[in-house]
Write a structure and sequence with these properties.
By secondary structure, the chain is of the alpha/beta class. It has a nine-stranded parallel sheet with strand order 9-8-7-6-5-4-3-10-11.
Length: about 270
């Protein structure tokens, strides 16, 4: 796989990065959780469990935020997050209900393009999550604007029902790259341990450039739930560009606590 660099952090260089989601409804909840992430990362670095900064990226899950439809308040919050995480990448994610996001009111759904635009022009984010299934036109339009502003695109696909066939997953990765994704993320649900193994094999194939489709962008592939935990650790070692850990509550089934993941990646 190739590499991409945002905020002086290289993704896809063979060194797995750790991303921690920030989830909260109010500014106070979000900033408290954000501070807790920094404090936990500092504690783990001090203990020598993983070199500082321990956490390379935070994901702001904007679909939980009560004031998401207010550009001024959103921009002010993003500024505060940047101040708390000057050396980390900030990934802005508004996850749809269809792909596991928080239930949202109709106004936010109808304003999604505006909300993503506000985040991008704020100057405080490094990466923007765009859902692959939101439509080719929207994906390309959003990716083009993000790239014009120097922002990377995490093009994401989630399946909470099953793990698609290998060929299907490979085609999704290929299509994501053609649509402008800088990091190609697939998260699926295993029914058996064979499904988990197939995800691991796909990571290895892409990383070794042996997939039938020539995928050149960094990938993130996750088999969710407890059954797929090894994809969050061993998958990261095989070539997933980053993996998710939690401090407090997680944002998806199977996420490991930060300390446990940091130790496992050493």
């Amino acid at each position: 796989m190739g590499t991409v660099t945002f905020h002086n952090i290289i993704l896809g260089d063979g060194v797995p990065k750790i991303c921690v989601p920030i989830i909260g409804r109010t500014d106070k909840e979000i900033l408290q959780q954000s501070a807790a992430v920094s404090a936990e990362a500092a504690r783990l670095a001090e203990q020598g469990i993983r070199p500082a900064p321990v956490v390379d990226m935070i994901e702001f899950r904007a679909d939980y935020y009560d004031n998401i439809c207010n550009q001024t308040l959103l921009t002010e919050l993003l500024q505060k997050l940047r101040e708390q995480h000057p050396d980390r990448q900030i990934l802005f994610t508004f996850r749809s209900e269809e792909e596991g996001g928080e239930l949202r009111h109709d106004r936010a759904g109808g304003m999604l393009d505006d909300i993503c635009s506000w985040a991008m022009v704020s100057g405080y984010i490094d990466l923007l999550d765009v859902e692959f299934l939101s439509g080719n036109y929207r994906v390309v339009r959003t990716a083009t604007k993000a790239h014009d502003l120097g922002i990377g695109v995490v093009l994401s696909f989630h399946n909470f029902e099953e793990t698609p066939h290998n060929g299907t997953m490979e085609n999704i990765l290929w299509d994501m790259e053609q649509l402008g994704g800088d990091i190609l993320k697939i998260a699926v649900t295993p029914k058996t341990h064979f499904d988990v193994d197939r995800v691991m094999e796909m990571i290895q194939l892409v990383n070794d450039r042996k997939a039938s489709q020539p995928i050149s962008k960094p990938i993130v592939m996750i088999s969710m739930t407890k059954q797929g935990v090894k994809t969050r650790v061993e998958g990261a070692k095989l070539g997933s560009a980053f993996t998710f850990a939690c401090v407090g509550g997680g944002s998806a089934p199977g996420q490991l606590p930060l300390e446990e993941l940091a130790k496992a990646l050493n």
